[in-house]
Amino acid sequence: MIRSRWRILPPGEIAVIVLAVLRHDQRLADMAGGNNVSESTVRRWCDELIALLAAQAPRLDRALRKVAKQGGEVVLIDGTLIRTQRRTDGTTPANTATMACTSLP
User: Fold this and answer.
1) How far does CA 15 lie from the centroid of its chain?
2) In the prediction, which pLDDT does 87 show?
3) How far is CA 14 from the centre of its chain?
């Protein structure tokens, strides 16, 4: 987030407001009214925080290369199990779809 003398709230409080909006689906108007700021200000804070987090996140191609280098075969993305037909051992029939996942450390 941008540090500025024009910000009405300290960065920690802005982060809590944005987390409430993103994580708990609080309405922008409710969060704005409870903190004496405008709805557009809360929207701008959310956009800034999302851009900041996106800049810090690893790119998908780099993350997948890292998993492949470590020997992983299936990746968990956003809590979703991805269906695969790859056989993991000799007991699984070739045409049976199995669920498997590994995640980044």
Assistant:
1) 15
2) 56
3) 18
Give 17-61 pLDDT, tens digit per residue.
998 998 888 888 888 888 888 999 999 999 998 898 888 877 877
Nearest Cα to Cα of residue 22 among 3, 59, 48, 2:
48
Q: Point out which residues pair with 80 in neighbouring strands.
A: 77
Identify the three-state secondary structure at position 46: helix
Find the helix or strand (DSSP H, E) in which 56 lies: helix 39-56
Q: Look up the pTM and report it.
A: 0.55
Q: CA 39 to CA 20: how far, in whole Å?
A: 14
**Is-contact 85 96, C-beta < 8 A?**
yes
**Residues written for the chain:** 105
